[in-house]
Task: structure prediction
Amino acid sequence: MTSLPAYIARRLILLIFVLLGVTILIFAITMLVPPDTRAMLYVRNVQHTSPDQLRRVAQKYGLYDPFYKQYFNWLQQVLQGNLGFSKTSSQTVAEAILTRWPYTFEIVLFAAPIIIFLGIYLGVQSAIHKDTIIDHACRVLSIIGWSLPSFWLGLLLLSLFSGYLGWVTPGPLSPDLMKFRDSPASGFTRYTYIDLFDGLLNGRPDITLDALKHVALPVVVIVVIDIALLIRVMRSSMLEALNKPYTIAARAKGLDEKTVIYRHARRNALIPVVTLSGMLIAGLLGGLVITETVFAFGGLGQWAARAAIQFDIPAVLGYAMLTAFIYVIANLIVDILYAYIDPRIRLV
Amino acid sequence: MTSKNSTRLKDSLVEVKNLVVRFYTYAGIVEALEGVNLHVKPGEILGLVGETGCGKSVTSFSILQLVPSPGKIEGGEIYFNKDGKVLNLRKLDEDSIRKIRGKEIAMVFQEPRAYLNPVYTIETQIGEALLTHRMEEFLKRAIETLEKTGKGSSFERKVYERMLKKPKSRMTRIMAKFCSKKTLKEEIRKEVIDLLRNVEIADPERVAKMYPFELSGGMAQRAVIAMALSCNPIMLIADEPTTNLDVTVQAQILKLIRQLRERFKSSILYITHDLGVVAELCDRVAVMYAGRVVELADVYELFKDPLHPYTKALLESIPRPGREFKSIPGTVPNLINPPKGCRFHDRCQYEMEICRKVKPEFMEIKKNHFVACHLYGGSK
Amino acid sequence: MSTKTRWERLKTEWAPRIEEWKFILRRIGESPLAIVGIAIIVFFIVIACMAPILAPPQGRDPFLMPNDEELASLTPQPVPPTTRHIFGTVISNQVAGQYDIYYGCIWGTISAFRIGIMVVAIALIIGITIGTISAYYGGILDEILMRFTDIIIAFPGLVLAMALVIAFPTLIPVDITQIILMLSAVFAIIFAAFKPERKFVLPTTIILVVALYLYLNNPIILSMNLTKLDKVLISLSLVGWPSYARLIRGEVLRVKNEDYVEAAKAAGCSDLRIITKHILPNTIYPLLIVSTLDIGSIVLTAAALSFLGIGADPNYADWGNIISMSRNWVSKPGLLVQFYHTFLIPGIFITLFVLGWNLLGDALRDVLDPMIRRR
Result:
């Protein structure tokens, strides 16, 4: 059965199990917190509640019930969209996510393709020009990039470009443009909530440009740090493909070197890289927490970071669950892509 | 030696003279080939025999300048007689050598499924060879078909005509990208199915759409042979094509190869370690040991009157019922630090003082029977 | 029959492996990047060892950065490098004062080593155990364990670590006897599953019985106070082991069906013996590479957690912790430029430290990968 649809169907079934497992793990972490502490989430004024009152609240909300009972109640709530209340942002977790995802999306929109395509290009070039200056430079630079703490690189760039040179302000948009966007009188309609697109849709390309200016630095930070892995995997995979028998056979057929490299070797070399791209998304979502905090970008990452600092457990766990879900789905897409590129895998 | 060579040149298709190949590895410099001499006459099957590691594959790769790094061709000449013109393949530039690869000289390899790209169908890969070397022919066919059937757009036809007249212009390439080229692909597909049928693959339409891993070893090898023959090469290099196959499949492939020689009159350089196959298939044989051709003669002549001690020992070591099993004492020398003189000297029962110090020359001792051995005056 | 002594037998048994290691060391020595990496690591080891001399501790806990109260009374803002504080000072959100960055950087080296090595060690132990058992015994156990690792791997490391760190209660009641009982039960199960040699059965049963008695009669309950650093250690270990488990599972699966394992089974070796003597030595190389690289990335993650303020106690000598103050100036980048010294220098320490391990790991991979491939 080397058919693509059958493969996809099988992976979808597996997906559901993993997603369920993710929810169980998240819930288990919730249960690490003692019931009395968890009861504080249900109380409006924590300081003025006595431990006895807390215990009664815990009793009332079934916080002393066995694991499976609490889990099913919780799961029911989650499936209805109730992910809890985030005290740091004074909204429900669901609302917090919905209002903040556009900013995160802006960053990922640029960072992911740049990492993937630039990484593939540099990796292939490194492999073709093995052991030359290009190869060594790529390698050293990418190792250095991988060693940089993301918050440090962010702080450096922020202090240089924003503090010292004043080219850009912290945050996703310049303050006056943001005021304009948010004021009801301006007539600016937020169609997609993504400033990049909304600017064009409202006939204000300057807003789009401004958004681009502001998203540049966070994207640079993420790309510099995460591209090393892709370059390395692409390079070694490409080197392997170049030495494979089918590459020699392709040359023996009289094909020109370009075709041999790009049509034959690279297509095979891309296979492990495609798999890696899934993991890359996970790395991105994790790294965003720090980068968004440094650049005050107002996205999901910054929200999660602030929540963590203030022990806002529903928010952090909500973010964790979201990232895990995105990762699992991204991996499914990647697996399907993999099956499309490499027909051998469809038998699995 | 030179006068003898020039006469040889006139009636051989490919000649390898004193080929030296070295591999620069971490463990040291491997002297893989230290002066290989052989020649293939038009329309004949020359067998190249030797133990594993003696350099047979390296020799075959060298002819098409395909020696993989860290290997380098460092000496000798490789002559190819193309329609009367003698080309030195070592001195050709990349573009010219590419025109020869796959078109004039084609190769078939040992493990066919490893040498086929796993992510493309058979159809795509054979089609690729056809498009590389016979593009004009197929373009013309496509245009003919378009005229005859009247199907397909006029845009398509314009694209084909442009591809014929100005294949390298940017405009042509852009137009070609936007064109579906259905007719061209269909012509290629028909040819591929024909080719597959010629190598006795049953149900070629289905096989064409398969991926290499879906084929059995025998079928894959036939497909590879079909691919190699797709552009009507004048010489085929077959590097142990049946070693990894079952004996019954091997017999079928050998039969196929013989039929192909009859039909297309191409020469074949057949590499193997199996003397039985040599006896059955080849017209002439070259025996290799540790990076050198030590003997080259007609098949019957070689089996009847082997001159080189190694050949003699090889023939004696063929197990025969009723006879005691004889093997050659010693082991193949380490090619990183090979012995200075004849590389076989420490295992040779006729070893002389000179064998340890001086390399024997490859000389014609009897008519069309060449040996490299001091027993026959191998020194000049 | 064998006239060799035990020592001679050991030597011949290990000789080819020692040859291999010598070859590996030689090749590493030939790579300039590896030399730089090792030099950097050695540099930091020296700093760590000489910490008491380079930055004499003042007070009970050397890991608490000392507060320059005189300076604190003069100005509430961080002071750039001067002769008294050669890297400058940093202030803290929680406890007012001026803290010497130089001191923090020196003692932060020890913190970094501690976190990096301990987390990787613990994660390796857990990961190798689970991965090997999963691969060796296969079947449904393998499926379940691998789904479990899948679930953990689905989370970005930092995010899961964040969640764990804040969820862990600070005060845990620890029932020591229960732990002893659980551990002994686990060992007993492992031994039973591995079909051990006769000599192990008796001691195992004795330990189990003793543990049971202790648990039933004399429960010892302690209250353990987890510092933030402890929580970080536990969280990172829990987040890190699945990747090792998967890695070694892949290797064990590959090696499991090799001829020499079949031969060992036919010769009657117990499973434990096969695993420790035949399978593990041949599967450990990829883990060596990954764990070296991981020391660097664990330190980075821990620094990120400290930067957010959840990874270290106030004024703890930890590189990320020193930089965490910069969070306050992110909305006013002018301040960042003014107080650049508070993040520039500790950041250089982090980058260099991680760079050292990454260079070494990368060189190791260069050397070991072709070898692994050849196997």
Chain C has two domains: 31-170+226-368, 171-225. Chain C has a mean pLDDT of 82.
